[in-house]
Amino acid sequence: MSTTSRITAAALAAVAGITALAGCGSSGTGGSADAKTVTLVSHDSFNASKSVLAAFEKETGYKVKVLRGGDAGKAVNQAILAKDNPQGDVFFGIDNTLLSRGLNAGLFTSYKAKGLENVPADLQLDKDAHRVTPLDYGDTCVNYDRAYFTQHKLAPPQTFDDLLKPQYKNLLVTENSATSSPGLAFQLGTIATHGEAGWPDYWKKLKANGVEVVDSWEQAYNERFSGSAAGKGKGDKPLVVSYASSPPAEVLGKNPAPKEAPTGVSTGTCFRQIEFGGLLKGAKNEKGGKALLDFLLSKKFQEDMPLQMFVNPARKDAKVPELFTRYGTAIDKPATLAPATITKNRDQWIKQWSSLVLK
């Protein structure tokens, strides 16, 4: 949940003083340097507690090197371009909106990770071949700045159709479908809601209502959204495409804890994302990569994920922190599309969207 979501490590540091993986990971290029190093390639949102990665290193003897490659869409594209000489051993962060792109490119080697029996069947989209392992899920949704709507005595929008109403003109910022995983998920949500014939007209109306498009989640949330603590309220858009689990990030570290998060979720604008990890074909340290995939699906890592990346763990037996459940929003009926439908139409939909919205 770019992401699959997807509060980035940088945003978390700004919100709650969390440091990135300084001791247990690093940035750079190239795969594992030696048999005792395992390299994880991911999007910018990957984060984990130092103690959790240290536990993996102690248990296995492998040192983890983390290479972050921008938004999930960009990271996937980079991995495909480098597939003949992979940058690392494991890729984390390809989701159901982009999965077929990686699978069709032959990006991964089959491996059935330990603990997969604890993952619900509906998350296992490659359950026959095991080229990828489901690791988390979340819902891309419009978030709103509560203070803005209270100040203007305006009810926040709750559905896709609400966003077309004149009272919300020029209030929404979203991400580019061609460059951003949440941007693409939001587009897919409108397609799931309005159908393959109706979504272009919806976007024409949304464009006429002043939607702003930026390249990445970081730009949208941290720079343009007025409710972002990381952006210190400098943005002027009170509506942003983010995640149902973003509000807890705005509360993390606050003492005393508020009664509610300063941001809310428009529950009728959500699309379900499932995020996967996979052993990269041609990995220099395949043995270490398998051990790392096992660890990413372990309860220790899965229970660390919610407050590090603000996603739901894939394991059904993983405990979720109270802060995450208290301030997050559970989406009972998110919009979805069959993976085969996404595979068949995604590239053409993105081209059509770009023509409609960006020109």
Q: What order do the helices and strands come in, and which of them pair?
A:
Elements: H1 9-16, E1 37-42, H2 50-60, E2 63-68, H3 72-81, E3 90-95, H4 99-104, E4 108-109, E5 133-145, H5 146-151, E6 172-175, H6 181-208, E7 212-214, H7 217-224, E8 239-243, H8 247-251, E9 263-280, H9 286-296, H10 299-304, H11 306-309, E10 312-313, H12 322-327, H13 339-357
Parallel strand pairs: 1-2, 1-3, 6-7, 6-8
Antiparallel strand pairs: 3-9, 4-9, 5-8, 5-9, 5-10
Helix pairs in contact: 6-13
Beta-strand proportion: 15-25%
Q: What is the overall number of helices? A: 13
Tell me, what's the shape?
A: globular
| Rg from Cα | 19 Å
The number of distinct β-strands equals 10
- Element order, helices and strands? HEHEHEHEEHEHEHEHEHHHEHH
Poorly predicted regions are 1-29
**Separation, N- and C-terminal Cα atoms:** 28 Å
- Please summarize the sheet with the most strands: 10 strands, mixed
Structural class call reads alpha/beta
Helix content: 25-40%
Question: What number is the mean pLDDT?
Answer: 89
Describe this structure in words.
By secondary structure, the protein is α/β, with parallel strands linked by helices. It is built from 13 helices and ten strands. The chain has helices at residues 9-16, 50-60, 72-81, 99-104, 146-151, 181-208, 217-224, 247-251, 286-296, 299-304, 306-309, 322-327, 339-357, and strands at residues 37-42, 63-68, 90-95, 108-109, 133-145, 172-175, 212-214, 239-243, 263-280, 312-313. Strands 1, 2, 3, 4, 5, 6, 7, 8, 9 and 10 form a ten-stranded mixed β-sheet that branches. The chain starts with 8 loop residues before the first helix and ends with a helix.
